[in-house]
Specification:
81% helix, membrane, mainly alpha, transmembrane helix, transport
Length: 415
């Protein structure tokens, strides 16, 4: 965009670039989706990783790496621009499917997930910030709904596709060849077609009026971290809810395939169940993001956390494909209520001058939930069994909903 081109907010004014970023984020989600069905089974069937805690190390490493990369991504995108960070994320992600194909030991899978965590932290964080830049204040929920829907529909599609390929051709290499194509396409689109959006954030900052009691633009990184994590009521409530939400996803990613497979389901049906949860999650966000712009954020998030808790409890209490399919739908619906709405809360409250860094801090907490969930679920499963681990996570999720109901205030800007 040239210096003389007027900067305009809104989805309609920026539709071609917005849709391109939606497509790019779908490719980002597909990079994670290639692992969802196959890697937990690789741990058990190929590398003979016995203990649940040990088999979930790939999620722990992924979660912590992605979490801290999210934090760095916000500062880097403010300093150097959004597009260079996006391209760097794709370059780092290119080797991931190749490492998974060629891995002679479980350590290679761990190394691949370090790179995947960096890839996801840089690319997903940046596409979020770029869409918030383009959308402007009035349609942040809708923008985040489309962003997260694209990403998690791709997670679901890739989880189903890799499960089907694994059932037909084995766990390696066929499922991960899709990942090679995804990484190459993501890098090509980001390099050739994506445009910088940082100027939109600067323009908004110049015209921004902080809410009463709000915080202006002159904050240090430490102050932004403290506000987002602890001091600011809505931001801190969002951070803990995001962490618990991804704690749930870490459980579903690491233990659900093993629970379903050891209960007698075939690999194809396991793949369907693993895909169903993010599919409902992804589709639902196209509705819930827009609803949060109309109805507000707080009570959608509260309802979503309780709905997830019910779905997780049904996995623990039930058995069989039909019961678990209902549970997956409930988990997906609850996550759809929460996921774009939490990001919209951060966009509502944070000043445009430090919004990218606030998104990074929020996503630090949110994505550390993968690691925390893998550790909590793995240790509990080793000590008390798979179903006990699922029950523990259900209780944690319900508690998080209570925190949102008590601590968060409504953040939606009036029309």
């Amino acid at each position: 965009m040239s210096a003389t081109t007027p900067i305009r907010w809104g989805l309609r004014a920026n539709l071609p670039q917005f849709l391109l970023l939606v497509a790019v984020n779908a490719l980002v989600g597909a990079m994670v989706g290639q692992e969802r069905t196959v890697v937990p089974l690789l741990a058990e069937q190929v590398f003979a990783v016995g203990a649940f805690t040990a088999s979930l190390t790939f999620i722990v490493v992924f979660g912590f790496t992605k979490a801290f990369t999210n934090l760095a991504a916000g500062s880097l995108s403010d300093r150097y621009g959004r597009k260079p960070v996006l391209i760097a994320g794709w370059l780092i992600g290119l080797p991931v499917p190749l490492l998974l194909i060629w891995a002679p030991s479980w350590g290679w899978v761990i190394a691949a997930n370090v790179l995947l965590g960096v890839n996801q932290g840089l690319t997903w964080s940046t596409t979020i910030v770029m869409k918030i830049d383009l959308a402007g204040p009035a349609r942040r929920g809708l923008a985040m709904g489309f962003n997260e829907a694209a990403g998690y529909l791709a997670v679901a599609t890739m989880g189903w596709a890799t499960g089907a390929l694994a059932a037909a051709h084995g766990l390696r290499p066929a499922p991960f060849l899709l990942g090679v194509a995804v990484a190459a396409l993501g890098l090509g689109l980001s390099t050739a077609l994506v445009r910088e959006t940082h100027q939109h954030a600067r323009h908004e900052a110049a015209h921004h009026v902080s809410r009463a009691g709000g915080h202006g633009h002159g904050l240090t990184n430490r102050e932004i971290f403290t506000l987002t994590s602890f001091r600011e009521r809505a931001l801190s409530a969002a951070s803990q809810a995001g962490m618990v939400n991804n704690l749930n996803d870490g459980l579903a990613w690491g233990l659900y395939p093993i629970l379903f497979a050891t209960s007698g389901l075939g690999l194809t049906r396991v793949g369907v169940l693993i895909a169903l949860y993010p599919a409902v999650w992804g589709l639902g966000q196209m509705i819930t993001g827009a609803l949060s712009d109309r109805w507000g954020r707080k009570w959608l998030i509260t309802a979503g956390m309780f709905t997830q808790a019910i779905g997780i409890a049904l996995v623990a209490a039930g058995t069989g494909f039909t019961v678990w399919a209902v549970a997956a739908v409930l988990m997906g619906a609850g996550t759809a209520l929460v996921y774009p709405t939490l990001l919209a809360v951060v966009g509502d409250v944070a000043h445009p001058a430090w919004r990218a860094r606030a998104v990074g801090v929020y996503r630090l907490w949110r994505d550390s939930g993968y690691a925390v969930g893998a550790l909590v679920a793995g240790i509990t499963a080793d000590l008390l069994g798979l179903r006990a681990a699922v029950w523990v996570v259900a209780v944690i999720t319900a508690g998080s909903g209570v925190v949102v109901a008590v601590r968060m205030y409504e953040t939606r800007h009036p029309e």
